[in-house]
Amino acid sequence: MISQTVEYALRAILTLAQNHGKPCTAQRISELTEVPAPYLSKMMQMLVRNGLVLSRRGLHGGFLLARSPEDLTVWDVLEAVEPLKRIRECPLRLGAHRTNLCALHRRLDNAIESVEEAFKAATISTLLNEEGGVTPLCDKGGDSSLPITIDVPEK
């Protein structure tokens, strides 16, 4: 149901959120998230165009979240990258159904609605701070309770 592109975008957003306002280069995000660099670059451009990520050029440039992790939801990321399509009318265009969906399409739309509600309630901050699990994208070689860090050269 959730495409690889959406998961990749969520990995990138989580990486940016874990780095507390420090710019991350596309190359570093690619390494940390295991998203192929060319694919990541296109996806980051999409996130910038949709207002979720800021891009800074230059020596100390990179990508930053445009909003705080507390204000950014999984739904926001999904909608920016690959929106879920609700079923509002019969996909088969059957005249008798019109907007009165049959049991199959009503059930499918109800499932999509449940996913939508769950993702709207899940902020990026919540994912990073959820108790009882490990931190997403934790350092592969280290303590899974610690966030990854990006080394930013001093000016």
How many DSSP helices? Answer: 6
User: What is the helical fraction, as a range of percent?
Assistant: 40-55%
> What's the story with the biggest beta sheet?
2 strands, antiparallel
Distance between the termini: 44 Å
- Whole-number radius of gyration? 18 Å
Q: Overall pLDDT, averaged?
A: 83
Q: Give the class-level CATH name of the domain at 4-84 and 122-129.
A: Mainly Alpha
Structural class by sheet pairing and helices: mainly alpha
SSE pattern, N- to C-terminal: HHHEEHHH
User: Strand sequence of the main sheet, in spatial order?
Assistant: 1-2
Which superfamily, in CATH terms, is the homologous superfamily of the domain at 4-84 and 122-129? Winged helix-like DNA-binding domain superfamily/Winged helix DNA-binding domain
- Strand proportion, as a percent range, falls in 5-15%
Low-pLDDT stretches: 140-155
Determine the CATH topology of the domain at 4-84 and 122-129: Arc Repressor Mutant, subunit A
The tally of beta strands, per DSSP, is 2
CATH architecture classification name of the domain at 4-84 and 122-129: Orthogonal Bundle
Précis, in short:
This protein is mainly α and about 160 residues long. The chain contains 6 helices and 2 strands, in the order αααββααα.
Structure description:
By secondary structure, the chain is mainly alpha-helical. The protein has a domain at 4-84 and 122-129: Orthogonal Bundle (Arc Repressor Mutant, subunit A). 45% of the residues lie in helices and 5% in strands. It has helices spanning 4-18, 26-33, 37-49, 74-81, 103-121, 124-129, and strands spanning 53-56, 62-65. Strands 1-2 form a two-stranded antiparallel ribbon. Strand 1 and strand 2 (62-65) form a beta hairpin. It starts with a helix and ends in a 26-residue tail after the last helix. Residues 140-155 have low confidence and may be disordered.
